Amino acid sequence: xxxxxxxxxxxxxxxxxxxxxxxxxxxxxxxxxxxxxxxxxxxxxxxxxxxxxxxxxxxxxxxxxxxxxxxx
Length: 72
What we know:
By secondary structure, the protein is mostly helical. The protein contains three helices and no strands. The radius of gyration is 21 Å and the shape is elongated.
């Protein structure tokens, strides 16, 4: 957040947002690793479970499950 941003909400937001809590879900999101897929890749998968299943299968197919040390 920029230091020159106002800390009070504008009047036009009304009372609906006045009781909001900044960073309410931050801890929940911070626990996860967020990866962004390119649009063409994302069209292949229907959900995150499918992505994880395929990645686990690829890891299991490698010898050690770790990246090859010879790759850049």
